Amino acid sequence: MVEFVDIALLVLLGITAFSILRQKNLFAAVMMAGIYSLLSAGLFVVMDAVDVAFTEAAVGAGISTILMLGTLALVGHSEHQPQHRPILPLFVVILTGAVLVYGTLDIPQFGDASNPAHHHVAPHYLEESEHEIGIPNVVTSVLASYRGYDTMGETTVIFAALVGVLLLLSLGPRPRRVVSNGQRISDTDSGKPVSEGGVEEAQEDTLQISPEEKTLGDTNG
Amino acid sequence: MFVAATVGVLASMSLAMTRALMGPTVYDRVLAVNTFGTKTVLLISALGFLTERPEFLDLAIVYALINFIGTIAVLKFFEYRDLGWTRPPEAGSE
Q1: Number of residue pairs across A and B with CB atoms under 8 Å?
Q2: Which of A1, A173, A176 comes nearest B3 by C-beta?
Q3: CA–CA distance, A163 with A150 (Å, rounded to integer)
């Protein structure tokens, strides 16, 4: 039964990934990325990695969806047509993926009790951590004490990333310029709030970029 | 029984996924993602009982909380076009 759940989740994961690839509307792509995170969290739960699943749900489906939406407020809502054919990047990505899959061939069997991970320091942690550290939860004592420097480094990296992202996003959103069905229906450049009817229509999937935004995007890219 | 529940949850997951794929409006997709989060919570709960480890139920509850906050943030973004810290004064006077 668990295998069936695995297969079903992986099929859904594949469909989501391809739809993110094909999607030109970036709002929809961000929404699908949230679904992707939830599916991977489900897969991690199936593999008994509950803490990883929890992090995936909090970071992948929660924070990064919000950060990506904040980014969309800065850069516009739809993808530009690529100017070149991505043959070389595709080749590099496929090569890297093949090397990674080759690397997994050496990995010990999943869930095997004779794996090195279960024999190196894990028994010591399980038996001695309560006397040595004084915390009943083994995972917490490994994270905060035995591997304290490692955790401090990770936290520093995450803090630096957070500061960078906040600096970028705090530039403020672009002025609301929305074109629906070829007609401009709202424009807050004049400083006036948008009327309710305008908001209703503006949030349909027909969001397009104005020519001005397009030229901006082209010069940036 | 839990097998049937799991299969049902997976089926409704694929239905929500279909709606998220088809759209057509942004709200359909937001609702689909929200539904998908709920289905994930249910799937974790059902899996916990299926594998006879119902301790995962705590995790499912926290998922539900994250899902709620995430949906609120997305909808707030659609309302104000940003996440609040640079909100222009006129957008606040709803």
Answers
A1: 123
A2: A1
A3: 20
